[in-house]
Every structure is written in structure tokens, then in C-alpha cells.
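task queued by scheduler; priority normal; single chain, no ligands, no partner chains; default sampling; output format set to C-alpha cells
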Amino acid sequence: MDASQTIARRPAPQPAPYRVPPEVTARRDPAWTRFDPSVVPPAFPARPIMVGNEIYRHSVYGQRHPLSIQRVTPAIDIARALGWLDDAHYLESRQADPEQLHRFHDPDYVAAVVEAERTRQVPEAVRERYNIGRNGNPVFAEIFRRPATSSGASILAGSALAHVQRGIIHSLAGGTHHGRRDMAWGFCFFNDPVLGILAMLDHGLERVAYVDLDAHHGDGVQDAFHDDDRVLTVSLHEDGRWPRTGALDDRAGGMARNLPVPPGLNDSELALLVAQAVVPLVQRFFPDALVIQTGADGLADDPQAKLELSNRALWDAVAALIPTAPRVLVVGGGGYNPWSVARAWSGIWATINGIDADVHLASEAQRVLRGLTWNHSRGRNPPEHWFTTLADRPNPGPVRESIHRIIETVLSP
């Protein structure tokens, strides 16, 4: 065999692992957050507050994109219709400006997103370098303003929480956990959980835990704090699903724990994982603050994953995690069925406030749900309970041996 044949059979070189330089997340002066305590509703911190924005009512990623649906404003509208939310507990988020985004994101990348919104087009070189306009990261009318608004919400929430002893903030549009420092990734242009955590740390908190309940691995947050012992990242996600990272033995630089669960995960299995693994991991870290990413794509009614959870299981997980830290930021995440997302996230707001979400919906709340549309085969003839109730039927089941192995592995030293 000659040398050319030998070379031809060698495996292709693998790209270097994505890493964020530690100096990017090292503590800085918090002036970049431009935090103004006067904008926070007086009801906080005695009561939880919700952060939202009207930009999400009409902004979509494109008619054929999984995020062509309405998700944030329907959940807010349902909470208002049921009397669970009023103006005293609601804060319209401001848009983060480029300088604030530079706290984590590369300035040239931020400028490229701004320019893509201005021109509604992306040169091929920019497309290749920053992954904008391809791979599920389309150019659309609010390509900068929309993610900058969710980032502004997390920056504000992180800053506000750092200034109180206890408190809970719910930011439904947050949770863009795939965003990379200098690249769009997985429908995420900016990484608002990272910016929210950095706001907490820069304002003086010492330890922040991040728990990701999305069906996809929280890779962008883990990578941002890969070597930072101030941040514990815990991700519970479907094994083998994109981005195909977050293996059971992946602990990043030591401060990550990953729970890749098998398809078909049921309510009983999630409850056991949360009670016996996730909650103990967070308690052991003793955080000053906790960020919970509540992607709804692990629900049985979602088309993007193969997990079989009811929304009750997600609510119970949030309820179990809230007591583990004095300050809690709850953000959204994935979720690609507009009815299941709206029902799940309005139920999370109820859970945060100690309200039983297992209710038959009044006519005004039903109108919100009946007004939604979904360009998907499952959206052509939605079942009636998607309109009339918030709570799914529970989906208990047997606990498989693989679940016990996950718990044992993540708790081991």
C-alpha cells in the first residue's frame, strides 16, 4: 500500500472544541448592565414579577421555520385572562444595546446581526463566518431587535435579583441557550442566560446554578462557563438529539453535570431525576441564585423531540427547584407547538405564584388559545383540550434502569 492510500484512509481531522476564553466571563464592573432600580415594579421582591415585550406578538422567524409560531404573548395573555397577572407584577423589557451585548458576544458578530436586520441580507462571507442566514438561523425583520430584547430582559432580571436577598423573576422569552459568543447556533442569535448570569456575578453574587430542562443540551451556557467554578450548569436533555453534546460523562472543566435521558421519558422518570439528582446537585453547590431554563420541547405534544412528558411534570420540576436558591430567574426555551407552549408557560407562572393551574379555562382564556395557528399537520385539527384546559393528563410510567444509572453517575465525585 502506497502513502497516498494510507492518507486517504485516515479519518478526517476533527474541528477544535468550541471554547470561550476564561477572561471573557471574568468579573467586571457592572456598569455595563445600566441597571436602574426604579424601573422594577414595587411589588418585587415580595412577589414574583414577569418580564415580557410586545415585540413577540408579531415577530416570527419565517413562515416555514419552527419558530413561525406565537409563544410568549399567548402565555402572558392567558395569565392576564385568568387574573393571575396584572400591571403591578409585569415589566416591559428594554432592548439590550450592542455595547451591553459585548459583555459576552464578539463586537464584530453583534455588528453583523445589526447589519443583517438593516439590509435584510447577508453576504456569503458573513453567512459562513457567523452562521447567519443558514442552518435554521434565518434573516428576518427583527433578527437583532428580538434577541436583543430577550437579552435585555435577562440582563435586567439578573441585575434586579442581585440587589435583593430573595426574589423570583419569570422571563418567558429568555432561554436562548445555544447562542455562541461569535456565531448564531440552534435558532439562537444571542445567549441571554449567559448575559443574565454575568449580570448577577458582576453585581456581586458569588455562585450561580443553571438548570436546563429543555429537550436539547444547554451547550452554549455550559461552554461559556466551562472553566468558571462560580457557575454550576446542569442539563437534562434527550440523549442523541441535536447538538449531540452533553454526554453523561461530560463535566466540562468540572462544574457541569449532564443528564442525557432516553426517548420516551415519562413523568415518573423526570420526577425521580429531579428529586434524586438535580435538586441534590444544586443544593450541594449552595448557590446565591438559580436560573431555570424551561424549554417546552420535551412535552409529549411537541414535534421536535421524542420525550413523553406532561406539562404537569415540568411544573413540578420548577416547583421542586425554586426552594434551592434565594434568588431565581425562570426563563423559557424551546417549544414548537404553540398550544403546548402557551399552556405550559402560563402554568409555570401559576406554579411560581403558588396557584393551582389545573383549571377549566374561562372563555377569555379559551379565545387566546383558539386564536392560535400552526402550520403543521398536528395543527390542522387540534384536540379540544388544547383550548379548554391548561394541565395535561399526567403521564406516569415505569422507571427504567438507565434512569437509575444516570442518577448514580452524576452524583459520583
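post-processing summary
- Confidence is low (pLDDT under 50) at residues 1-14.
- The beta strands are 49-52, 90-92, 167-171, 208-212, 231-238, 256-261, 289-293, 327-331.
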